[in-house]
């Protein structure tokens, strides 16, 4: 080749290279501009729609909230809630412990004769502790109320005969509107101290508060704890039959006798007679002594009593 031909070849080679570079650049730009861009936008759209689909998930996260709200309303457990039902003459609180929220309302009463029968209050405390620990538990359809001490003034005065009456010197088991009498007869009546029946039925704040509570809360059966040694007494009047049935069933699981020990005492203005007249199965249970709580026996008594709903309407 001569010099001119080499020059021509060289120029055309450069021209081809430049052209190739231009074509490659155009192609590269075109591939960037056309093909990948829709991909990235479709990805962006995809992530947008992907984040758009979770939007129902916040609503699905919101839906569990309403389903969570019924949980608190699903019968909260009542295990020893204290209800102050009134106050004594000397302004001491009358405390009822509530266990359960069932439709059948049962009640345990203690301390109506204050310090003279202090072991009934001690027993009520033992029962309350075991109910709280679930050592004793009633059926789900039972509400159990425990009044640990109806006569806190007498209890505070003396753990003995002087502690039997309330601060007005009234026997709180003679003050009810059931054959109420200012005076009663019987050589075998309690006579260690002079004691009255009150000015009239329910003259005392303690008996009035308990009567109101029993009616308001529609209590269906009760055991009124006393001491000592006379056995089981059943309330008279409307629910006499049910009261007698309860006393009888309790006598089967305990050494407490039913019918009780015979006495010539005229029992007037009594709590169980008033309760029974209101349709409540009501029993007086006398512990064996003034000192022992008879706990083991009364755990069996509780088993029968807590199942008492089967006899109720
Ligand atoms: Zn008593």
What are the SSEs and their pairings?
Layout: H1 3-33, H2 36-52, H3 56-62, H4 64-68, H5 70-73, E1 79-87, E2 93-99, E3 104-109, H6 118-132, E4 142-147, H7 152-157, H8 205-216, E5 221-227, E6 232-234, H9 240-252, H10 271-277, E7 281-287, H11 295-306
Parallel strand pairs: 3-4, 3-5, 5-7
Antiparallel strand pairs: 1-2, 2-4, 6-7
Bound molecules: zinc ion (ZN).
Zinc ion (ZN) is lined by residues 113, 117, 226.
The CATH topology annotation of the largest domain reads as: Aminopeptidase
Number of strands: 7
N-to-C terminal Cα separation, in Å?
Answer: 129 Å
Q: What spatial order of strands do you see in the largest sheet?
A: 1-2-4-3-5-7-6
Largest beta-sheet details: 7 strands, mixed
CATH class of the largest domain: Alpha Beta
What is the compact description of this entry?
With 313 residues, the protein is an alpha/beta fold. The protein contains 11 helices and 7 strands.
Structure description:
- This protein has 313 residues and is of the alpha/beta class.
- The chain has two domains: 3-71; 78-311, Zn peptidases (Aminopeptidase, 3-Layer(aba) Sandwich), CATH 3.40.630.10.
- Helices cover 41% and strands 14% of the residues.
- The longest helix is centred in the N-terminal third of the chain and has 31 residues, at 3-33.
- The model is unreliable at 31-60 (pLDDT under 50).
- Zinc ion (ZN) binds at residues 113, 117, 226.
- Residues 113, 117, 226 line the site of zinc ion.
């Amino acid at each position: 080749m001569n010099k001119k031909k080499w020059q021509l070849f060289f120029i055309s080679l450069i021209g081809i290279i430049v052209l190739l570079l231009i074509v490659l650049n155009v192609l590269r730009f075109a591939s960037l501009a056309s093909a990948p861009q829709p991909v990235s936008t479709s990805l962006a759209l995809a992530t947008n729609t992907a984040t758009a689909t979770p939007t129902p998930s916040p609503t699905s996260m919101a839906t569990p909230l309403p389903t969570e709200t019924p949980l608190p309303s699903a019968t909260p457990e009542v295990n020893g809630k204290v209800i102050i039902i009134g106050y004594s003459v000397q302004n001491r609180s009358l405390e009822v412990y509530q266990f359960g929220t069932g439709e059948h309302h049962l009640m345990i009463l203690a301390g109506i004769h204050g310090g003279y029968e202090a072991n009934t209050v001690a027993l009520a405390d033992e029962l309350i502790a075991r109910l709280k620990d679930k050592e004793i538990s009633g059926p789900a359809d039972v509400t159990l109320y425990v009044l640990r001490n109806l006569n806190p003034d007498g209890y505070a005065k003396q753990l003995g005969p002087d502690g039997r009456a309330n601060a007005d010197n009234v026997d709180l088991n003679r003050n009810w509107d059931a054959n109420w009498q200012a005076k009663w007869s019987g050589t075998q009546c309690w006579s260690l101290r002079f004691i009255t029946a009150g000015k009239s039925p329910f003259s005392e704040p303690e008996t009035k508060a308990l009567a109101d509570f029993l009616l308001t809360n529609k209590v269906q059966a009760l055991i009124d704890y006393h001491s000592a040694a006379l056995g089981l007494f059943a309330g008279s009047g409307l629910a006499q039959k049910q009261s007698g049935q309860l006393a009888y069933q309790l006598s089967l699981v305990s050494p407490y006798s039913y019918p009780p020990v015979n006495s010539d005492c005229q029992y007037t203005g009594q709590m169980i007679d008033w309760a029974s007249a209101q349709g409540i199965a009501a029993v007086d249970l006398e512990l064996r002594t003034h000192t022992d709580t008879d706990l083991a026996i009364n755990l069996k008594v509780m088993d029968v009593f807590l199942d008492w709903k089967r006899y109720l309407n």
